[in-house]
Each structure stands twice: as C-alpha cells, then as structure tokens.
Write a structure and sequence with these properties.
Blueprint lengths: L1 H21 L6 H21 L5 H22 L7 H19 L4
Helix pairs in contact: 1-2, 1-3, 3-4
Length: 106
C-alpha cells in the first residue's frame, strides 16, 4: 500500500502545482483553496508512505512524479515550450525514478 499512497501523493503534487499557477500568487480564492487542500493531501499521503519506505526513496519518487507530471501538464495544458533539452531532462528524471524503485526492497 505504501507505493500506492506514494503515487497518489505524487499525483496530488502535480494537481497542487497546476492550481498554484492558476492562483496567480494566491490572489484567486478557489485555485488557492484547491492548492492548499491538495498540498495537505499530498504531504499526508507522503508521510503515510514514509512509514514503510526509506526516506530517500519516498521523497525522490514523490518529487520526481511531481516534477515530470508538472512538466507534462505545462506542455499539454498550458502550452509551454517543448525543447530537446527539456525532454531529455524529463527522461533522465524518469530513469532515476525507475532506478530508485528497482533499488528498494519495500
């Protein structure tokens, strides 16, 4: 279950990052509320996953899911620039996540 919680926490991180962008510096109420609620959920699930998973693994996977997910949302939803260097960076992050998962026994 720890891996499930960690993946959901990572997805919530993507959601809060998107809505933080939409909050325009916390000046819009509903995007701000969504940001705060999903942040709390993300941190809460991360803490539950950390009961079983090693700190380094859990935190790396959580931030990696958030980083790559936010990168993809930026491209697909917000129309951000796709460049070979940015894509390579995302591929390297995913490679690191796979290696981190493979190196963990939990």
């Amino acid at each position: 279950m720890a891996w499930f919680y960690l993946i959901v926490a990572g997805i919530l991180e993507i959601i809060w990052a998107y809505w933080m962008k939409q909050s325009h510096g916390f000046t819009r109420i509903w995007p701000t509320v969504i940001t705060i609620v999903t942040m709390i959920g993300s941190f809460g699930l991360l803490s539950v996953a950390m009961r079983t998973l090693p700190l380094g693994t859990a935190y790396t996977i959580w931030t990696g899911i958030g980083a790559v997910g936010a990168f993809l949302v930026g491209i697909v939803v917000l129309g951000e620039v796709v460049s070979p260097m940015r894509v390579l960076a995302a591929v390297l992050i995913v490679s690191g996540l796979v290696l981190m998962k493979l190196s963990t026994n939990a």
